[in-house]
Design brief:
264 residues, alpha/beta, 2 domains, two-stranded antiparallel ribbon, elongated, disordered N terminus, RNA-binding, rRNA_adenine_dimethylase, methyltransferase, 16S rRNA (adenine(1518)-N(6)/adenine(1519)-N(6))-dimethyltransferase activity
């Protein structure tokens, strides 16, 4: 069935779920084409398919098998009715509580139009299972997309930039205007692609690394010597004279190694 001939009125966009349904089919095709196959995965999980505007193009891709996860029962019912071939692979649930072992035996890519209100949480969950996820293609609020893809030294560079760039190579693909959605959001959207890099071990305590990064950016206008005081008194080091946005991932690894040696 052609997507444009479906009855869109059957699924109402719900504000509490952050739903903005993509209606621009050209954009949908470009998002799906963003999947590069990096990591040689055979399965893809779409987060929040809604009425299936991305799904229809994913199902045309024979290089992998498409699964979807959707928390909205109304959307699940719509997908089951309009995508009968997909029905056995529709997961009704919350990605934030998703256990991949229940559905996948190997690696899988992630794709989706992420709800703005939980996009950061989706990335933190993906980081927890990063060795199962070789590639992510997603659309989210433009400012967040730019932040994630931003290099060190840029004002947009932040916590998510460092944590995700530690394990993924990231490309900003396209900007999408509000008019491409129903209802239109008040901001522009951006599409990014994350491809798993070769880093398997950060050579430091990972939980402490996350804490160092978050603490450093909590007071990003201060030098790191002052910003990192909640963690402890660091010995003299050139990195401590800089601000968080000036440091690469490798610099944060060095600071974490120093933090591991602090008393207490």
């Amino acid at each position: 069935m052609n997507y444009k001939n479906r009855d869109d009125s059957k699924v109402r966009a719900k504000k509490h779920l952050g739903q903005h349904f993509l209606k621009d089919l050209f954009v949908a095709q470009r998002i799906v084409d963003g999947l590069s196959g990096h990591g040689d995965y055979e399965q893809v999980l779409e987060i929040g398919p809604g009425m299936g505007v991305l799904t229809q193009y994913l199902l045309n891709k024979t290089a992998f098998t498409t699964h979807v996860i959707e928390i909205d029962v109304e959307s699940v019912a719509y997908l089951q009715k309009n995508y009968e071939e997909l029905a056995p692979r529709i997961i009704e649930g919350d990605f934030l509580k998703f256990n991949p072992d229940e559905f996948f035996s190997g690696s899988f890519a992630i794709i989706g139009n992420f709800p703005y209100n939980i996009s950061s949480q989706i990335f933190f969950r993906a980081l927890q299972i990063r060795d199962r996820i070789p590639e992510v293609v997603c659309m989210l609020q433009k400012e967040v997309a730019q932040r994630i893809a931003s290099p060190p030294g840029n004002k947009d560079y932040g916590i998510l930039s460092v944590l995700l760039q530690a394990f993924y190579d990231i490309d900003y693909l396209i900007t999408v205007p509000p008019g491409a959605f129903n209802p239109p959001p008040k901001v522009q959207s951006g599409v990014i692609r994350l491809r798993r890099n070769a880093v398997t071990d950060l050579d430091c305590d990972e939980k402490l690394f996350f804490r160092v990064v978050k603490t450093a950016f909590n007071q990003r206008r201060k030098t790191l010597r002052n910003a990192l005081k909640p963690i402890g008194e660091f010995p003299d080091h050139p990195l401590l004279t800089k601000r968080a946005e000036q440091l690469a991932v490798s610099d944060f690894v060095i600071l974490t190694q120093i933090a591991q040696r602090l008393p207490g």
